[in-house]
Every structure is written in C-alpha cells, then in structure tokens.
Amino acid sequence: MQNLFLTSDKKARKEYNKLLKQTAKAVSDAFVNESAYSGPTPDELKEIVRQDSILPEHGLGWDKVFELTKEKVLPNLLRTPSTEYMPHLHGPSLLETIAAETIISTFNQSMDSWDQSPVATEIEVETIRHLCKLYGYDTSKADGVFTSGGSQSNQTALLLARDWFCNKQLNYDVKKYGLDEKCSKLRMYTSEISHFSMEKSCHIMGLGYKSVEKVPVDNRKKMDVSALRSLIEADIKAGNIPFLIVGTVGTTDFGSIDPLEELSQLAREHNMWLHADAAYGSGVIMSQKYSDRVKGLSLCDSITVDFHKMFLMPISCSAVLLKDGSTFDALTIHADYLNREEDEEDGYTNLVDKSMQTTRRFDALKVWMSFQTRGRDGWSKIITTSMENAAYLYSILRNDSDFAVITEPEISSVVFRYKGNDSLSGEELDEINKKVRRTLIHEHGTIIGQTVSDGRVCLKFTLLNPRVTHEKLDELKELIKKLAIS
Which positions does the record annotate as the modified residue N6-(pyridoxal phosphate)lysine (predicted)? Predict the structure, then answer.
C-alpha cells in the first residue's frame, strides 16, 4: 500500500513527480496538429473504448493503464485550445489555471467548512470581495459564492429571489413552512431564448414550468420590454404575483444582451428582484473598449458569472454575486458536525452557509491566480480580441451573398446560414447546413456549432479563443462554401 498519495515521504514525492511529468509529456504530445478532433464517429469511438472489464481481478498497475490511456483516450479528446474549435461556450484553459487545477486536485480542499479548507476559504472570500467590486457592487454589503456552473448559479439566485420576495412582500417564510397556495401564483419573466436552467430551476423549486413567463425578443434578439410590461400587467390582473425578472447578458446562441437599465426600472416599479444571467457576457467587463455594454450589471440584485466561458478557465468555475449578501440567510442551516455557531462567532467562516452544495472544489484559486497573472491589460486584450473577431466574421459573412447572418454580434457569437443562390428550398438548405457541420467534424477536425433560428437550421461560431486570426476566419468561410456545394 505504498505510494497511494503525495506525502512528505521521499518515495511518494518521487512517484508524484514522475506521474505528473509523464502525464504532462503525454498530454503535450497529443497536440500533434492544429485540428480540434481526430475524426472518429460515435460508433468508431464505442469500439475504441470497449473493454471486457474496467475492474480486473488484479490491478494492471500504472504503466499499463497509462499506455491504454495514451492509446485510447488522449488521441480522441477534443483539443479545445485549437483554433478549429468554436462550437459552444466551452473553450481552452489558460496555462496558469491548469497549474491551479493541479494544486486544487492534489490538496483536495473541501469548501464547506473552515477546518476543511483554511487558506482556501480565505482566498474565496477575498476573491468574491474583489469580484463584487469589479461588477459595481458596494463591497460592504455585497457577497457571493462559487458554484459548479451557470445553471447552479442561476438556481441559487432564483431560490434566493423567491424567498426574499415571499419574506418581504408576502410576509411568508418559505424556508420554514414550504410552498403555500400563494406561491403557486408566483411568476418570473425571462427571454424566450434564455437558458433552460430557468425552467429547470423553477421545477426543482416546486414552482413548475408554469411560473416561467417567456418574453418575446426583438430583431436584435433582446428582450422586448414593452412585451414584458404587458405580460406583467396581464398577470397582475389575473391574480398572479410577479416576483422576478431575469435579464440575459449574452444569450447562449446569439450573445445578445437584454436592456438591463430598463429592466431594472420595471423591477423597481413592481418591487421585483432583477437577476442577470451573465454566465456568458460577464467576461465583457474585462474589455477596456467594450465594458460599457454590460454596465447595467451593477443595477441587478444578483449576477451569474461563469469563468469557464469567456474567462477561459477549466470546467467547472462559476459564481453567483448578490448586491445584498444578507439574502444568503435563506440557505443557512447549522449542523454540530460542520458549521458550529460558536466557531463563526470567533471568526471561522464556513462557506456552506451560503451554498447549495456542501462539498465544493477550491475553484476560486483559478480566478485568484489568473487575474493576477494577466492583469487588467492582459485580460482586456483577450476579451477584446475575441469580440472583434466576431465583428470581423459578421462583416465578411454579411458581404457574401452566399450567407445570411441572423444578427450583429454584441459579444463573440456569430449565427449564420449558408443559403447559396436561393434556388433551393428551406428544407434542402437545412440539410446542406447540417452536412457541412458533420463533414467539418469528421473530415477536417473542425468543430463549429449548430442551432435553429426562425425554424431554420443555422451554423454558429463561438469565438472565445483569442488565437483565432482573421485569416483563419476567411479560410473557414471559404471551406464552408466549398463543402456546401460539393
């Protein structure tokens, strides 16, 4: 049972260094070219990974298992740092954040109680304080917590918004008494193209999909505020209870930004909570040139921030920020074995008090290290480059009669459709666009996205990687055109 873990023992430290050195070399060797994928189809991958058992009677040992990994896994992983990878809000990982992941995994802190993560707790608290300042909150009142991703950040915000509204406006404590008849009338409002975590969260909270009112968008894919006002007024007349508006700051497909200033005014008129789902667009704050596009974030009662999207950090890394940190009280419950009140009175912070999770990873370290490594100027260059790449791609597609572009990008996503000379039907063009995407994946190692707009199949570039050049975008446009007519 030797060398199970990294310890102070010399042999254990030697083994740890050996494994990490081997792994680092094998990973770097897997980057054989600039393609994003080696090409196997789903059926081919199933055959590659199929084994009689992954739990042999006697262990194979590290060397044999590592050879299997190098043979079957590493060559077939997506190479997200490639300039050929641009389908989703899922990008490469900055080098310093990969180093941070090694530290996180090796020390294996658990962020629920101080005695499981002493310095990690203090780093997260400090990082949250600076994030609140970055997004325009008063740091003497604001607070936040790291989460597993945008969906959990959104769910946390929605739950806190519901409990806040029930306590303040309905004089009813959901935390103590559960849902009552009035809660069945609660209504929230979100864009018709907002993230599906809105419906999922309301289901989990016991409000159901019926509590989610989907608001139409305009031709820029932004929430239509006039339509929102009409929906709120209609619900009030029907006896329903509006409690929450969600503004999306970077819709998943289009990167569109809802008008937060107008939404804030409407929320205040009706004593509603305003949440910003900025899982995508939160990174825009780092661009010295374009940060004004998200200046309305400081008006929101809560903000979802994702660091594994525009911020280019390893999955998972997200946070939810609150303008008034006392609202986290809705999640606090004390347990003698975990977050004792006497410890907290003596200055021991137990982060489980404001988290839906108990066990959590020390993801704040990635932000803490990367922000200091790159600085404001470095981050501004990364974010600005990606946004301007999107603007360039939009311009060359718009000026090419073979393509239709859905809307001008506000962040770094471009949704478009090959349409040729319009001699083909919509259904035929749908199939051509689907074929182009599949051919790119399996024959060219290039991965782009696919979605639907106005009932028609579209292609999508999600440009998070600042290594992408205008020349690369020119080449890909021409390749798509070539594949479409072949």
Answer: 309
CA nearest 457: which of 465, 466, 449? Answer: 449
| Sequence ranges of the domains in the chain | 10-36+38-77, 102-371, 375-485
Task: Residue 249: name the closest of 311, 312, 194 by CA.
Answer: 194
Residue 20 token pair: 């990490």
CB of 356 closer than 8 Å to CB of 147: yes
Residue 344: predicted pLDDT = 73
Q: Examine the pLDDT at 337 and tell me if it is beyond 60.
A: no
Calculated CA dihedral for residues 115, 123, 318, 407, nearest 10 degrees? 170
Percent of the chain having pLDDT more than 90?
Answer: 91
Q: Quick one: fold of 102-371?
A: Aspartate Aminotransferase; domain 2 (3.40.640)
Q: Can you tell me which residue has the tokens 């035929």?
A: 428
Q: What is the pLDDT of residues 72-98, one digit of tens each?
A: 999 999 999 999 999 999 999 999 999
What is the distance between the alpha carbons of residues 209 and 162, in angstroms, rounded to a whole number? 15
Whether residue 454 contacts residue 93, with contact meaning beta carbons closer than 8 Å, is answered with no
Asked if residues 373 and 382 have their Cβ atoms less than 8 Å apart, the reply is no
Q: Which CATH number fits domain 375-485: 3.90.1150.10, 3.40.710.10, 1.10.260.40, 3.40.920.10?
A: 3.90.1150.10
Cβ-Cβ contacts under 8 Å for 222 (sequence gap 6 or more): 191, 256, 257, 258, 259
Sequence length of the chain is 486
Taking the C-alpha atoms of residue 292 and residue 296, their distance in angstroms, rounded to an integer, is 8
